[in-house]
Amino acid sequence: MTCANIQPIVILISGSGSNMVALLDAAERHHWQERWRAQVVGVLSNRPDASGLAKAAARGVPTETLDHRTFETRDAFDQALIVRIDSMVPAQSRPPLVILAGFMRILTPAFVAHFEGRLLNIHPSLLPAFQGLHTHERAIEMGCRFAGATVHEVTAELDHGTILEQAVVPILPDDTPGTLAARVLTQEHRIYPRAVEGWLARHAAS
Ligand code: GRF
User: Fold this and answer.
1) Dihedrals φ, ψ of 149, to 5°?
2) H/E run at residue 99
3) What is the DSSP letter of 59?
4) Whose CA is nearest to atom 3 of ligand 1?
5) What is the atom index within ligand 1 of the atom nearest the CA of 103?
6) 3-state secondary structure of 21
7) Tens-binned pLDDT, residue by residue, of the chain (206 aa)
8) CATH number of this structure's domain 8-202
9) How many angstroms separate the CA atoms of 53 and 65, rounded?
10) Ligand 1 center to residue 102 CA distance, Å?
11) Residue of minimum CA distance from atom 7 in ligand 1
12) Which among 111, 113, 56, 116 is positioned nearest to 84, based on CA atoms?
């Protein structure tokens, strides 16, 4: 396969990378390369201590770190991030699909514009409810009976953008934010690969 044909994918993480692992598993099991010439060309973390980095490396995926704390401004970090992501993409290939998988950064409009239409995120709530942080705690406090996760296209506005997939889970009477997060996370691992496969089917060459 020549680089000119591939649909590169770059996954951004900040932590344990369990969604990233689910995506790498799906890429292999569901033959993304053969079906859509799609290839995860790199995993990048803004945190050097993200445990997901070792999981990616163990699977032979190139990893990089760009520590946001070494930049003075959000704009400067995002500009450097754009350059780094683009440098992970083989020359002459298509522009990358950038997948945010537990990437805990608010992105600047310039970053979002650079990857417009090629930027996906997963959020641990049923958007548009509970944008932002501490979603499980807030859902329990509000007395919600259901929680869930959403995969969406990324726009300049936080946790907005067209919804591609959602999954719903019950909130049980004795749930803590931790038990609820674990229940939601298993669903995240199911819907994120499905959303990416839908994106590839719509955008990538066969
Ligand atoms: C997930 O719940 C994701 O939705 C949220 O952070 C968590 C990341 O988990 N933004 P992991 O790093 O994929 O294990």
Assistant:
1) -140, 155
2) strand 97-100
3) T
4) 102
5) 10
6) helix
7) 556 689 999 999 999 999 999 999 999 999 999 999 999 999 999 999 999 999 999 999 999 999 999 999 999 999 999 999 999 999 989 999 999 999 999 999 999 999 999 999 999 999 999 999 999 999 999 999 999 999 999 998 888 899 999 999 999 999 999 999 999 999 999 999 999 999 999 997 65
8) 3.40.50.170
9) 9
10) 4
11) 102
12) 111
Q: For residue 3, how far is its CA from the centre of ligand 1 (angstroms)?
A: 30
Contact 56, 17 (CB under 8 A): yes
Pairing of strands 146-153, 119-123: antiparallel
| Distance of alpha carbon 139 from alpha carbon 177, whole angstroms | 9
Q: Cα of 101 to ligand 1 centre, how many Å?
A: 6
Are residues 6 and 174 in contact, defined by beta-carbon separation less than 8 angstroms? no
Q: Which residue minimizes the CA distance to atom 8 of ligand 1?
A: 102
Mutate to test the pocket of ligand 1, among 46, 188, 189, 191 (most ligand atoms within 8 A of CB): 188
Residue 67 Cα, ligand 1 centroid: separation in angstroms? 19
Residues in the chain: 206
Q: Which atom of ligand 1 is nearest to the CA of 123?
A: 4
Residue numbers annotated as active site = 123
What is the C-alpha separation between 158 and 193, in angstroms, rounded?
A: 22
- For residues 35 and 70, the answer to whether their CB atoms sit within 8 Å is no
What token pair was written down for 104? 């805990």
Q: Which residue has the tokens 């699909």?
A: 97
The closest-lying atom of ligand 1 relative to the alpha carbon of residue 100 is: 10
